[in-house]
Amino acid sequence: MLNNDLMTSKMVLKEIFEGMIKYSTLLQYVRSGKIPAKKIGRKYVFSRKALIAWRERNFNRPAFAKMI
Predict the structure, then answer these.
(1) How far apart are the first and last CA of the chain?
(2) Does residue 37 come out as left (phi exceeding 0), alpha (psi in the -120 to 50 range) or beta?
C-alpha cells in the first residue's frame, strides 16, 4: 500500500495530468528524466509533492504545450 505522498502511474495520469497525456507518454517523460520518479522493481512511483512542484514550474511555460 502506498502512503499519501507516493503515487502510481495511473494515479499521476488521473490526478496530476487529468487525462492530458497517455500512459506511454508519461513513461517516455520519466525515462528521459523530464518527470521525477523512482523505479521500484518493474514499476515507477512518484512523489505527489515533487510532481505538484514540477507541474507548477513546467505547466505555466508555453514551451510545455509543445511537448504534449
Answers:
(1) 31
(2) beta
